[in-house]
Structure formats: structure tokens, C-alpha cells
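Predict the structure of Septum formation initiator.
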Amino acid sequence: MTESGERGKAVSPRLVVLAGRKGKPSLLPFVAVLLVLGLLGMLALLFLNTELNKGAFTIKQQKATATKLTQEAQQISQSLAQLNGAGALASQASDLGMVPNGNPAFLAPNGSVLGSPSAAAVPTPTPTAPVTQATTPPPPEPTHPSATGSSR
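Done. Here is the predicted structure for Septum formation initiator.
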């Protein structure tokens, strides 16, 4: 036989009807999956919201700390500027017994002296409070040679 003859005699597959489920399919597994997914989504959103609030609280604390440190730095800078100012320098100089010279002299870059140098006038001290001397007995004189502190 030829090929065309064999094709015509091929056996066709039989269709078999299987017994199916009777009634409506159950929606319970589908609803359970949706509920679990919804619950997981809500928990994820709750966790995300909590973490964002923690981050916002931390940022607020860090900003407050930064503001406080900036204010402290400004106060320190102001204190330093006051200590380095001319008034503080003059006050420290007078505490050391220095007096201002009303007739200063300057050295020019070529080495010559500009102005006529003169000594500053010494101001007379002004008494601030009467000084009273307390009478204290003199220390006892040592009687033993080792108490004098001299060593041979």
C-alpha cells in the first residue's frame, strides 16, 4: 500500500468522558488566599509605618542635638572673640601692671624710627580697700640641727 492509503485507515482517538465534580466549585481556598495576602499586606504596611516613624523621631532628635551644638559653638566663638578683643587685651595688660603710652614710636621698614619715643607715665595706684595686717606669731626656731634642713 501507498502512503496515501495508510493515512485514510488511521485510527482516530476515542473521546472518553470522565466523571466531573458535581455542583459548584468551592470558593473557600481562593478566599483564604486573598485573606492571607491582605493580612500580610496590612502587617507589612504597619511595619513600614512604624519604621518610618522611628526614623522621623531619630531625625528630630538629631536636628535638636545639631541645633544645640551649633548654639554652643556660637557661644564659644563669641567668648573667644571677646577674649581676643582689644578691650580684653588692655584689661589683661593692666592686670600685669602695664600702662598705655600716649606717645608711641614706630619702626619704619627701612629701620628708621618714626615719632619721638618717651617712657610711659606711671599712674599712681588708687587704694581700693584699707589693708589691715594680721598679727601672727613668728614660727618657732628649730633647736635640733637636723630640723634646719641643712645636710652635710
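The mean pLDDT is 81.
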